[in-house]
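During the second year of the project, the team shifted from modelling isolated chains to modelling whole assemblies. The rationale, set out in the original proposal, was that interfaces cannot be judged from single-chain predictions alone. As a representative example for this report, we include one of the complexes processed in the last quarter. Its constituent sequences, exactly as entered into the pipeline, are reproduced here:
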Amino acid sequence: MEYKQIDILTEESCEELHHDEAAVADAETKMPDDDMLFEASDFFKAFSDSSRLKIITALVSRELCVCDLCEIVGQSQSAVSHQLRVLRASRIVKFRREGKQVFYSIDDTHIEEIIRITISHLSEE
Amino acid sequence: MEYKQIDILTEESCEELHHDEAAVADAETKMPDDDMLFEASDFFKAFSDSSRLKIITALVSRELCVCDLCEIVGQSQSAVSHQLRVLRASRIVKFRREGKQVFYSIDDTHIEEIIRITISHLSEE
DNA sequence: TATTTACATGAACAATTTATCATATGTTTA
DNA sequence: TAAACATATGATAAATTGTTCATGTAAATA
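Output from the structure prediction step:
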């Protein structure tokens, strides 16, 4: 990763000077640090698969057990469990066990707002 | 895709009845149609890579030419162009040509809001 | 008009992601 | 305690994605 940057600077960049040095400097100042960028892109990655998005959307209004989620997304229990694992890792869903069943629900208040804004945005055009 | 669903229903689902049939029916009613789900997940996919997210973040406050974007994200011109292609396809950025340079900018008013909410969400914990 | 500059793109390869299959774990029930 | 049920998970294969390299195109300029 570091080597790549060195390569670019020496071989590929548009000479020594950028076209709008001030804009570049300003953008670099305002840029969130790499940790935040990786965390944020991971967060969005959770929404970037239609099966996961279906799971998230289904959970917005109520908690559901895994079996019902399989029914709703039309996928195997194993596939759904793997996706839930991803969503758990991103702390988008939480779960509680009740006997043999495990109930999942949204672990965050912002999720619904983000989905709502996005859907309304995409519906506009 | 269709065949997969049939397989699941006959081989894998938890018998004939779900655990909470009403909840499943309700979730299925409220579920956006598949076209919307694919479109929305594609939209989020644009944000799911840290290089693309860096490009988007840089463009939020101003338009930038490709060369300056390369400088900011620290990647080759080719890599950045390929990413811009993805962002164009999702209609997240627009561009205008000015002589030899091409200037990119955000093609949507919701983008900043979505990023802002997400960053604030991730900063909370 | 030949060259240079800025950017785009196709092909190939590497890395990552997703689905499937088999199996393991935790809980209830016979 | 054995069997059944609901869910989780590791390994593998298939699909997708991201980067690089080589080359193509449009505009400016020598």
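The CA atoms of residues 65 and 101 of chain B lie 6 Å apart. Strands of chain B lie at 64-65, 93-98, 101-106.
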